Amino acid sequence: MKDLQAPLTPEDFDALDEALDAMREHDESIPNWEFCDGFLAALVCTRREIESEEYWPVLMGESFRPMEHMEFVLGFKRRLAEVRVLFQEAMDQKPDEVPRYFPEMLDLRGAHLALPQDEREGVDLDQLPPFGAAWAHGFLWAVEAFEEDWAPPRDKELAVVLDDALDAIAALTTPDTGTPSLSMFEENGPPTISEERLHAYGHSVWSVLDLYRLWQSLGPNTQPLRKAPEPGRNDPCPCGSGKKYKKCHGA
Question: Which residue, of 65, 137, 159, 204, has the fewest CB within 10 Å?
Answer without folding.
Answer: 65
